[in-house]
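hey can u run this one w/ adenosine-5'-diphosphate bound, need the structure tokens asap thx
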Amino acid sequence: MVTMKTKIHVLPEELCNKIAAGEVVERPSSVVKELLENSLDAGSTDILIELEAGGKRLIRITDNGCGMSRQDAFLSFERHATSKIRTDADLFALTTLGFRGEALASIASVSRLRLKTCDNDDGLGQQIYAEGGRIKNVDELGLPQGTVVEVRNLFFNLPARKKFLRKEQTELGHAADVVTKQALANPGVSFRLKHNDRIILDLRREKGLRERVAALLGRSLLRDLLPIEQQNGDDLQLSGLISQPQLTRSAASHIYTFINGRYIRDRVVQHAVMEGYRHLLMKGRYPVVVLFLQIDPAQVDVNVHPTKHEVRFREQSLVHDFIANSLQQTLRPAEWLERETFDSSANEVGNYLSERQDHMVKQENGVSANSFVSESSAQYVPPVGHFQNNIATESTTQQFYPSPPFSQLGSEDQSAIGTQYILPESEEAGFFSRLQILGQYHQSYLLCQDGADLIMIDQHAAHERVGFEKLRHAYAAGTIPSQTLLFPEVLELDFNSAAALGDNQHELESLGFEIEPFGGKSFALKAIPQLLENRDAARLVVDVALELERIGRTGQLRESIDEILILMACHSVIRANQALAVIEIRALFQELDKIDFKANCPHGRPVMQRITLAEVERLFRRQ
Ligand code: ADP
Ligand code: MG
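ok here u go:
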């Protein structure tokens, strides 16, 4: 006789829910996200979010939406129970944020959940209490129309998961992120976020996106944001606010993209946004963008990922190009693209164009080759690509090898350099001081001669490098010298940046900043590092806050301090597109000579490129 032994068995419902919860509920902020989506789907115009201990102890969301009947209230605890879709065709015509019918069941299975809901004006509602997904208690009670979902002790029955939760402030930060995203997408809805009885966000109903952005990200941003409004047939529409190129962030965290009202973090969309800003931003800088794409729901599948953060487009490249082109069109007619505006007042703006360090050499070579043709079309024009390759491959390996002193007849000139040759400083001087200065190219690059070689120095990168070394030394020696501002400047920040600044007051002092809380998410900037005198320190503080926020999440401030010093150096330096007098170049070179170039370069960008005589000769077909 054969005994049938089965190895496979069907899992009990409760365990299934726990497994499903693993996909959707990672931390308190995931609960906030799901509950907010439900409240918004229910048509709420007023939503209160209350958290305790970063949401680890309590998450309570109160809305004034349509509420649920007694029967629906029971059903809402079931997995795959939803009022939002019926057939698979509905999956491709979604107009709601939720549709999987999983969130409530999942959340209930890993918490103590109380649902209070009322779907009528009569004031009689239902209350259901469940522990670990098991309904323990049901009663009727008087309630206004709407729903309250209270989630206590998240993961009380999943200790392994609970261990992964971070400290209160970090979890709160994630939750605030979620609220920020929903609030941006729904300016007509009021949101209040309370933490341990303290109001963190208080967002009134607004008529439009601008006011909502001001309330969330700081009013001062508005002057640098452009409205965008583009359309491609009936099926594709793009609207929102995008930053002018001079307003950037050190992280992509202020790129908010929404598809049909749903926040998404999609690779294709992200790429398209950056493509829209191509050539306008420095490497490592990101715009501030709040962008809404409306697309025929049949053209996009949001059922790719349990948290619905990723999507799949039916026509990926069409959407990509539409977004990129729309941004370009909005940015292009603007004044900062006109070269004529590159005077000193527009310097900061112009810089962003000239920061295209990588493309610069290539592009300018292209330009000169072209003008060469127009002047004398009979002349042979060397293939530009060939020249570029030489620079890129050979000279990068030849950086910073001092060569023997070299001198040649010429005269020293103390004014801005013209075409004259400027002799090296002295025979004993360091490598840079010994260079023979030939001139300045495009107000961005210093051309020098070292022996028979042509040396090009990126003046911005060089200054940045020098600034970084100074800061690093000052920081290592104790404190970066600071300078009190005559008139403190008030900074408005978003919640997470404000929290990061608040948490790092002490560290900021040793970086040379004095910053005091100024109510809500505002701070008064009272002193700045001396090195930043006459620079836009407020903008730097915003960057530093972002960096602190990022570091805070990994908890490695000490190790990451270089990142912040780099940021500061970047803000402190003379930008490209600036005429330099010889005396200034000399001073820069002396500073460069003090630097140990064997150390890592801050941005990893070369300060200098060497082009050998042989390369030049090849270019002119002399070899
Ligand atoms: P889904 O949102 O995917 O439908 P959920 O598990 O999040 O699934 O919610 C199940 C159902 O419970 C929803 O379809 C909706 O009918 C109802 N529901 C949940 N939250 C609310 C709320 N705040 N107000 C009104 N109805 C709600
Ligand atoms: Mg839902």
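DSSP finds 19 helices and 24 strands in the chain. anyway lmk if its weird
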